[in-house]
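[step 3/7] fold_predict: job queued, chain A
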Amino acid sequence: MHRSFLTLALASATITPAFAQADMIGSGISPSAAAHSQTRPINFATTAPTSGALVILMRNAALPVNIVDAATTQALNAAIASAKFEGKEGSSLSLRGIGGYARIVLSGVGAEGDRITHIRNASGKAAQDLRDEAQQVTITGGLNQDEAAAAALGYAMGQYRFDRYKTVDRKAPPTNAVTIISSDAGSAEALWMSRHAALAEGVALSRDLATEPANVIYPETFVERVRAAFGNTANVKIEVLDEPMMRKLAMGSLVGVGQGSRRPSRLMIVEYRGAGDGPPLAMVGKGITFDTGGISLKPGAGMWEMKADMSGAANIMGALLSLAKSKAPVNVIGVAALSENMPGSNAQRPGDVVRTMSGKTIEILNTDAEGRLVLADANEYIVANKKPGALINMATLTGSIVAALNDEYAGLFSRDDRLAAAIAAAGTATGEEVWRMPLHKNYLDDMKSDIADIKNVVEGGGPGAGLGATFVGFFVDKNVPWAHLDIAGVNWADKSGPVTPKGASGWGVQLLDTLARNWR
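[step 4/7] structure written:
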């Protein structure tokens, strides 16, 4: 007995150091070291090959001239007539066994509307339809420089995939090249490389950040992933505030959200200057890397989706990456207000009062209204220290906006008509549509606290999205043009769209990129 006990004690002493690490957060075991499977490289050429998979972009029922040989043209015209294919935007006709091609897809872009957007969308849909086609892919249709670059962008966004955690029966999709045909192939490739490739990279970064599980992406690793994405990109400055720094600044609203988690909060500021010394456009995003609701615990069903509660911050970092890597002539600041909202023993409680760095006080009535709390301190810090010419918040803030607008629009709230109009125009141009919602003066009265300056929710319901936006705007100086985008309905795609495979959408990267380029 004594000997057995001694042996067991020695064995325990041997293994204890490997497992009993008091500072360990999580299991300490990464779920994967793999990368996503490779996507198809994108090339440009002036003439199409006579084999592989061919995508023909069509405005109507008439084939573009000089696309394929006479015999193939005749066969395609017969198929078009038989199927009554009219080339309407969003329509397609898939054919096999014609000419030397393994597959031909006729994809309608229509004769009316925004041809660039339609071409982008048709190419993105083709990328998804041809994902498993073990052939080289060619996209053609009398495309000029801008149209060919748009086709490349659409294909790049459409072929995005997140599969690094797949291990059982994983089969990597084919990686044969996709070639975009244009008489201006050289110019189209230059435009793609200088502008659109960076935009596709920014969208992919946003989608990756939002899709990763919360045991992989949390405040510290969000910062690491974004730093790695920017690398040594010119004219970029990255600043990160940790909890001791934020406590020194009395940023109690942001730090308070994360106090129940063992993963410390962060405030990440990425500044890109490409246009001299003018005031920057600031974009401040909610970065809740996982939201349990805290003490005001959410229902269990669907809680997994809360790994993407940092989509606002992710989209902003994707837009900054696009602008910086494409050397856009703009000054922008992207901010990620990062916390994990957990119901730990040190978590803040309903009824607590916190204060922001400006000294404003907040009564916490519901700890599940936490995104607005991290934005409060982030907004005040950026306005005080960076003097932006305008400030935009982006957040998966409320379920109310989903009930109001579903997944067709993001909710736009603004005190500045010019900024609101610029955001709406950028949304229309990119297909990331917004709908302006009211900010009634009574909302602020509704949010007054009996014991503090403001409360974080109004119990009993009401216009939740408007109340949330009002709270966020309360922490932005009224002299600063300000807008808030509630993206709770558009940040995740339950089914595939033309350039958005099912999953994290990266909604807002294109909008913010376009807005920044046109904001003066």
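[step 5/7] annotate
Residues 185-211 form the longest helix (27 residues).
The CA atoms of residues 50 and 513 lie 37 Å apart.
exit 0
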